[in-house]
Amino acid sequence: xxxxxxxxxxxxxxxxxxxxxxxxxxxxxxxxxxxxxxxxxxxxxxxxxxxxxxxxxxxxxxxxxxxxxxxxxxxxxxxxxxxxxxxxxxxxxxxxxxxxxxxxxxxxxxxxxx
Amino acid sequence: xxxxxxxxxxxxxxxxxxxxxxxxxxxxxxxxxxxxxxxxxxxxxxxxxxxxxxxxxxxxxxxxxxxxxxxxxxxxxxxxxxxxxxxxxxxxxxxxxxxxxxxxxxxxxxxxxxxxx
Lengths: 114, 117
Known about the structure:
The structure holds two protein chains of two kinds.
Chain A: E1 5-7, E2 10-13, E3 19-24, E4 31-38, E5 42-50, E6 53-56, E7 65-69, E8 75-79, E9 88-95, E10 104-105, E11 109-113
Parallel strand pairs in A: 2-11
Antiparallel strand pairs in A: 1-3, 3-8, 4-5, 4-9, 5-6, 7-8, 9-10, 9-11
Chain B: E1 3-5, E2 10-14, E3 19-21, E4 24-26, E5 33-39, E6 46-52, E7 60-61, E8 64-69, E9 74-79, E10 88-95, E11 106-107, E12 111-116
Parallel strand pairs in B: 2-12
Antiparallel strand pairs in B: 1-4, 3-9, 5-6, 5-10, 7-8, 8-9, 10-11, 10-12
């Protein structure tokens, strides 16, 4: 595709429910990143994929958060048993290789946990 | 750990004027990358400009240019002939060089820029 796409654009869920957020990177990009943007914490790194493997999961805030990537393309970020503090915009970015310095971002998913 | 500081939470400027956004960072590395991203109300993060630390020449992209002062660890963004479409949040970001094993972006807290008609 022309750019990074994310779905859904917005998600409202109840506390305790699980949610899945999807990211489609730019075609041919092997590196994929998830970031979270919240009022209190600003923009923070969550996890990075090179191909289907995740060399750096250091930013995942708790074991309720997990992510996978299949076929070296689409990635899914899953949040189990959502809490109100999970409310944020979740941004996905991709780059051609992990050692290519420019990351291109998707429009994000705004998650609201009630 | 690397840190990025943007000391101007908000700025406003008249259309067609020039504005400079400040950014400082802290790192012990000598080679790295610096970026300015723009985030309009649409939420899409858009790359404005990037700078490789090993390059002495300041990067420019049309109306956007940077003043990279490596010794001072300063990386300011100058927007010339500002336009209404420049209204957005601007984030300064730092990244270690390839192969360092940590290719994540570290962001500053952002500067909200408003262009006044």
